[in-house]
Write a structure and sequence with these properties.
single chain, alpha+beta, 2 domains, 5 helices, 44% helix, 30% strand, NHEJ_factor, DNA end binding
């Protein structure tokens, strides 16, 4: 589940007035949920035994195999993480000193279905693996992309200048652009 979670993208989610980013991975043997408000990061990892026990406590009238509960939880969380929450399902959260609880209310086979995710603070290694390292890698990739685009703009300016020196002229003057000046662009960008 941990390696599966690494491949999942972060998604923006709101519970009431609180905004978070979250990602989750569900399987037949359990699930793992990672959620952050960008100040703290919480997670819950539950195996099939824990899911079975909690489902008995929260849903006394429902009897189903653990994989059915896991499939239902995945079905409830997937639309939320895709930015299309199901209106028939309600989510709420509650902060506590030792973590964050995410409450889910829905229906399964015509009966009320409840679930509580009991998230505790994520270890530093997990935060690094799922949040810090990917952000640093993306930052470096974007920096490399900006360098490549700057190089291409400078090449295009040189190409346009060569055309001008050869006597070529624009057929539409509104298309004329000023040569790219990297330092001025960076100063303007940083000022904004």
């Amino acid at each position: 589940l941990e390696s599966g979670l690494l491949t999942q993208p972060w998604a923006s989610v709101c519970f009431g007035e609180s905004a978070f980013i979250a990602k989750a991975c569900f399987g037949d043997a359990g699930y793992i949920l990672l959620i952050s408000d960008l100040s703290s990061v919480w997670y819950e990892s539950a195996d099939a035994e824990a899911v079975g026990q909690r489902s008995k406590e929260l849903n006394k009238r429902l009897t189903a195999h653990v994989s059915s509960f896991l499939h239902r939880l995945a079905g409830l969380m997937s639309p939320l993480l895709a930015g299309q929450p199901d209106t028939a399902t309600s989510f709420s959260c509650q902060h506590s000193a030792d973590g964050l609880s995410l409450h889910v209310k829905s229906h399964l086979s015509g009966l009320p279905f409840y679930w509580d995710f009991h998230c505790r603070p994520a270890p530093v290694a997990m935060v690094s693996r799922h949040l810090v390292r990917p952000l640093i890698r993306m930052s470096l990739a974007l920096k490399y992309q900006v360098q490549e685009l700057t190089f291409l703009l400078l090449q295009k300016d040189a190409e346009i200048e060569d055309y001008r020196e050869s006597g070529a002229a624009l057929s539409r003057d509104r298309l004329r652009t000023e040569p790219f000046r990297e330092k001025m662009f960076l100063q303007s960008f940083m000022a904004q």
